[in-house]
Structure formats: C-alpha cells, structure tokens
Design a protein that fits this description.
Layout (H helix, E strand, L loop, with lengths): L5 H7 L9 H20 L61 E2 L18 E2 L13 E6 L5 E4 H4 L5 E8 L16 H5 L2 E10 H8 L7 E6 L6 E5 H6 L2 E6 L2 E2 L9 E3 L12 E7 L14 E2 L5 E2 L8 E6 L10 E10 L5 E7 L7 E2 L1 E3 L8 E9 L4 E9 L8 H8 L12 E4 L5 E4 L3
Parallel strand pairs: 3-12
Antiparallel strand pairs: 1-2, 3-4, 5-6, 6-9, 7-8, 7-12, 9-10, 9-11, 13-14, 15-16, 16-20, 17-18, 17-21, 19-20, 21-22, 22-23
Length: 439
C-alpha cells in the first residue's frame, strides 16, 4: 500500500500565508489516521521505533498491558513517571557562592498549562531553608496599630480563606543576559518564574483586626529564616491584593516555599513575598533594610540606582521551540509560549519569525487571569528555513514588551533586575535552537 507521508499531507494543505487553517488541520488528522488504520488492517504496516524495538507498538499488545503494576500504597505521596526524570529544577553553579544563598530554576520548557507543580517551583534562599515547627510558629503584627496581635497557625486558619492563581518571579529573572546571551537553555534564561494556586488570608483582614493608625503608610514584612529577610511594602498594595499564605496548589506550603507561612504580593518582585513570615510592623515610611538598598535596586547607566521598583513588567518567551525543545522534523509545528504581567491581565501576544521585522498575532490559550501566567500559540510549519523567532506581549494597561535596544537605552547594562525585553531564539537548518540577541 502506498501511504503518503506526513510531510506530503502537510505540503498539500499549505495556504498562501504559510500557515494552517482549522479545516487543514482537521483534514490532516482525519487522513493521517485513516491511512494508518487502513494499512494496519491489511497487514501492510511495519513500524519501527528509533531504538529498533517493535514489540510494544501497534498492532501488538504492549508488554505493560500484560502484567500487574504496583499497588496503591507503593508510594503514598506519589511521584512522576520515571520517563520524566529530566523534568527537575536546576542550578547555575557559578551564579552564587553558597547553596544556602542561591537559586534554582523551574523547567518551564517542559511544563504544561499555567500551574507549576510544587516540586518544580523555583527556589531562592538568603540563608537556607529553616525547619519550622508550625505549632511553635507565630505571626506578630505591631508598630503603628491600635491592637498589637500575635497569631498562631490555628488562629490564622480560622479566618475565611481565599484561593488565587498568581505568578511569582524573581526580579533577576533573565538578569544574566543584560550584556549578552550566556545561557543555552530556556530554563536558565527565564526559569526564575512559577505560577501556583495560593490559599490564605488577605493581609488587610489581619490589619483591620489590629487597627492601623492614620500615620501607618508602610509595613515591614520579616521572615523567620537565618537572614531575617525583610522588605518594606506600601500600605496601598496591602489593601489591594496581598495575601498571607499557608497552602499552595492544594497542599500546605513546602519548606522551600515558606512553610508554614509566607506573604504573597501578586505581580511584584518575588523577594517582597517574604517566606517563613514571622513579623509585620506598621510604620510611616520605608525601612531601607539591606535587601532593599544593597540588593534589590536597579543600577542605572549614570551610577544612580532605582529603588522600590516593585512591579514585574509585561514579559513573554517562546517555550517551543527553544534550546531544550528543538524542531525535530519538517512540517506542522505549534509555536507555544507563556506571557505574564504584574500590571493585570495579558491582552495579546505577537510572534515574529524574522527578528522583529514583521509580526503575526498569536492565540491566547486557556485561562487568562490577573497576574497569572498566560499561554499562547500559533500554528505554522517549518521547511528548514532559518528563523529568528520572538514573542512580544502587551497587557491591558497598554504596556508593550520592549526590545532589548529600547530597554538598554533607558536602563544601560549595569542592572541585573527587571530584564523583560523581547527574547530571540535562532532556529538553524537542522532545527537546532540557539540563544541570540538582536540589538
């Protein structure tokens, strides 16, 4: 039987723009399935995998369907398939001096949907992960309040809870790339980013119980870790959407994510979402502690530094293709990626195949939520031509993701924070993908 190849089928339905219409894709799937089914029925199909193994492929019954599997209590918590063992957090050894004050990156190139599993959420520590007994943990609220309060975990969990899906991002995400491309991996260029469902109590509810005095304009949030990590946060943010969180993706926080209690400032620098939260002080001005003077400031070209640049600006990146996900064969391809903004909702994403000369609108996929990851895609095909592929997101406030040249014109190259410029992947003739910059 003369069965047409996938490539031949794709070639017959290419429209004038080089993209695939909805009917094209449907016809492709229908025709592809019918040809394979017909060949198998006639005994004319001979399928061989890359490894040369055929015993588990149609029309044979797979080996795993002919024996018993493991029982329900083999591992009470469960674990991913062994075939997904490569989907893990990774570190850059030279990035920091010590692991207790370091960071790991999420494998965003392998993730589906918008929720980051708890075991894959990026990590950032300033003094390692403390081992906290929740029965002995307390949250203090004091300062410019009428009624200083101390809450146990039991007290906090008696308040009405809320659950919200929000992204969290280190402001240094992409910071290694300010002066030039360094990392040949999406996980290392953009992996200080995760998105979860967070459950807890709005901080404004707790402050209402304490009674904030008229002079109270800022709060200081402090952690219980060895560094006593702390950040000053304006009261306007607290009254908007700050949460005191004790659960993440349906379970209690993991130790590396702040167990038993953390702050969450949606859309703001991840370092303001203090982990292992132990103390909230209300004051009339910011405190200017170490992490908001020597660390989380943006050094400008003239030597001055921007302070309190809380909001994570609109950003996006293509996840397929990318260095970890090269194009493996010519033909139909779904370009995929993620976009996010600390200003609200993503409104749209455009994709360029020629380094920003021309743009095509992508489709937003699934949920489009306030201050959450948003997925996008564009159906296309690749015939071996070179691509300089980019994504450009814009949000509901009208903010448009800048080019690298635009960002450098405003900020110089001295900072390591808030690099949200358009990112470029170079696709070569064999489908390999490299990290490049266009200035």
């Amino acid at each position: 039987m003369n069965t047409p190849s996938t490539q031949q089928l794709l070639q017959t339905m290419q429209d004038a723009s080089g993209h695939l219409t909805t009917n094209d894709r449907r016809n492709f799937l229908r025709r592809g399935v019918s040809y394979v089914a017909g060949a198998a029925a006639l005994g004319g199909v001979s399928v061989t995998s890359a490894s040369g193994l055929t015993s588990n492929l149609p029309p044979n019954e797979p080996q795993w369907g002919r024996q018993l599997g493991t029982g329900v209590v083999e591992n009470p918590y469960g674990f991913p398939s062994r075939h997904e063992a490569q989907v893990v957090r990774r570190t850059v050894p030279w990035l920091t001096a010590e692991s207790i004050s370091s960071i790991s990156m999420s494998p965003i190139q392998d993730l589906k949907g918008i929720i980051t599993p708890n075991g894959l959420v990026f990590e950032r520590y300033h003094a390692g992960v403390p081992d906290i007994n929740p029965d002995e943990h307390r949250l203090m609220i004091h300062g410019l309040v009428d009624n200083p309060l101390i809450f146990t975990m039991e007290d906090l969990m008696r308040f009405p809870s809320v659950s919200e899906i929000k992204f969290i991002e280190c402001p240094a995400n992409g910071g290694m790339e300010w002066r030039g491309p360094q990392m040949e991996a999406l996980q290392f260029t953009h992996g200080m980013l995760s998105c979860c469902e967070w459950t807890g109590v709005p901080l404004k509810v707790l402050l209402d119980a304490a009674g904030v005095q008229t002079e109270g304009k800022w709060i200081l949030a402090e952690g219980a870790d060895g560094a006593h990590m702390s950040r000053s946060i304006p009261i306007e943010k607290i009254l908007d959407d700050t949460l005191v969180v004790y659960a993440q993706n349906g379970e209690m926080l993991r130790p590396e994510q702040g167990y038993p209690l953390r702050l969450l400032n949606p859309g703001w620098e991840g370092n303001t979402s203090i982990k292992w939260l132990r103390r909230i002080e209300v004051g009339d001005q910011p405190w200017h502690h170490r992490e908001e003077t020597s660390k989380y400031t943006d050094l400008m070209a003239d030597g001055r530094a921007r302070r309190f640049t809380f909001v994570q600006e609109c950003n996006s990146v293509i996840t397929n293709p990318c260095p970890e996900n090269p194009i493996r064969s010519k033909g139909f391809l779904e370009i995929e990626g993620i976009a996010w903004t600390g200003r609200g909702k993503v409104k749209g994403v455009d994709i360029s195949f020629d380094g920003g000369i021309s743009w095509r609108p992508a489709q937003l996929k699934g949920l489009v939520l306030d201050k959450a990851l948003t997925r996008f895609s564009l159906h296309s095909q690749w015939q071996g031509e070179p691509w300089l592929i980019q994504s450009r997101a814009y949000d509901e406030t009208g903010y448009v993701q800048p080019t690298l040249a635009q960002l450098r014109d405003q900020r110089g190259v001295n900072s390591i924070y808030h690099k949200n410029s358009i990112h470029t992947w170079q696709v070569g003739p064999t489908g390999e993908v490299k990290n490049v910059q266009i200035t």
